[in-house]
Amino acid sequence: MKILALELSSAQGSLALLNGGEVAVNREWPNDRKNSGPFFEHLAEVQGRFGKPDVIIVGLGPGSYAGTRIAISAAIGLSFGGTDSAPSDEQIQLMGRHRGRPSVRLIGYPSICAIECGVSEYCVIGDARRQSFFFSRTRESSLIEGPTLMSEAELREKLDKVDKKMSIFATERLSQFERAEVRYPTAKVLGQIANDRMRNFVQPPLEPIYLREPHITIPKK
What we know:
- 24% of the residues lie in helices and 30% in strands.
- The chain is α/β, with parallel strands linked by helices.
- The strands form two sheets. The protein has a five-stranded mixed β-sheet with strand order 3-2-1-4-5, sandwiched between helices.
- Strand 2 and strand 3 form a beta hairpin.
- The longest helix is centred in the N-terminal third of the chain and has 15 residues, at 65-79.
């Protein structure tokens, strides 16, 4: 079985292909959220070498909404027959109403569960903007808590209660939280997770993980 994994939720983009459970391709690069060119170059390379995958797994964040959206869009296009660029929003809506079945199984999973770190349990924190942060705890690549929104004071109090031996990761530098070590989710770990059919994967339609309701600006009358 060929598994294609896509991860664009952080400052490090990654793409991996597992063939028969073995990692055949593992690409990582600085993820410039304004330039998705490297992502599609790696994607085209893997398509050319290995053809259509049997399963596509996408990291859903939380993290960069734009990056996660690009990964989801590309995965949707590939699952319905293949594309070398991200579909437009109109194309995605049409695919969502597609009455047939995609030719490739498409699943999603929280990116923060796919950090390669050598420990079975860890916490992930992150800047959720608007003077708020999130906290989550992962065990054996499954979320057991969160992600939960907190103020800076609440997160400090939460971390003070976490075992001092517990690893705490963030996908960006958070200088106000000294225990947080910068680590990135990886497509390779996502692909390995996809091999476990007993996990609760997110099924289509896939969306980035929202930490709060989308903010909508209403124009003045």
